[in-house]
Amino acid sequence: MPIPTVISPHKTRLCYTPAHMITQALPWIVWTLCVACILVGFLGTVVPILPGAPLIFIGILIAAWWEDFSRIGVLPVVITGALALVTILVDIASSYMGAKRVGASKAALAGSIVGSLIGMFFLLPGLILGPFIGALVGEWWSARDLSQATRVGIATWIGMIVGTAAKVGLSLAMVGVFLLALLT
Fold first, then answer.
1. Are 181 and 71 in contact (CB under 8 A)?
2. For residues 178 and 67, is the Cβ–Cβ distance under 8 A?
3. Which residues contact 2 (CB under 8 A, 6 or more apart)?
4. Confidence band of 144 (pLDDT split at 50, 70, 90)
5. Mean pLDDT confidence for 70-91
6. Please, which residues have CB within 8 angstroms of residue 95's CB and are 6 or more apart in sequence?
7. pLDDT value of position 124
8. Is a pLDDT exceeding 90 seen at residue 146?
9. 63, 67, 117, 148: which could join 71 in a potential S-S bond, CB 3.0 to 4.6 Å?
């Protein structure tokens, strides 16, 4: 609350203290942090180095905590937490299952991970082609069979694309649960 100060007997003005200004700005800061976590989390569903679903969950948890779990109750937080866990499991399993389905070697699986990490530095083409090239090189290095290496590379790439689509869908579901709880 502003503190009135007397300038003259007939005039007063409001004096805002630093504590008052921080108190007024805090809700904006907290909600900006929540939105930033959710937006960066969405980016993380397609960029392998960013923890997508955990960031979305953290943004939702901060919002629920800020509102004392009154607008966003415990049940929506638990549901979004479970969805985040499923998203992480899908992320781990998707490329692995795609590569294992065609009999990939451990070198191909490692190559897929290395290709994903290196591909991040080449933006979208690197994100799309990195795992494929990494798995292909890893399998070729292990078996010296180009046709098998190509099958492994394609299977890894398809697994990654299917996994990314599933992660985007699960992340949208998380935000949907959050918005439903917030707006009702």
1. yes
2. no
3. 14, 15, 16, 20
4. confident
5. 93
6. 109, 112, 116, 131, 156, 159, 160, 163
7. 75
8. no
9. 67
Q: What's this model's pTM, rounded to 2 decimal places? A: 0.73
Domains of the chain: total: 1
**How many CA atoms within 13 Å lie on the side-chain side of 101?**
14
DSSP 132-175: HHHHHHHHHHHH--HHHHHHHHHHHHHHHHHHHHHHHHHHHHHH
Domain range for 166: 3-183
Give, for 26, the enclosing helix (H) or strand (E): helix 18-44
**Cβ contacts of 46 within 8 Å, gap of 6 or more:** 52, 127, 164, 167, 168
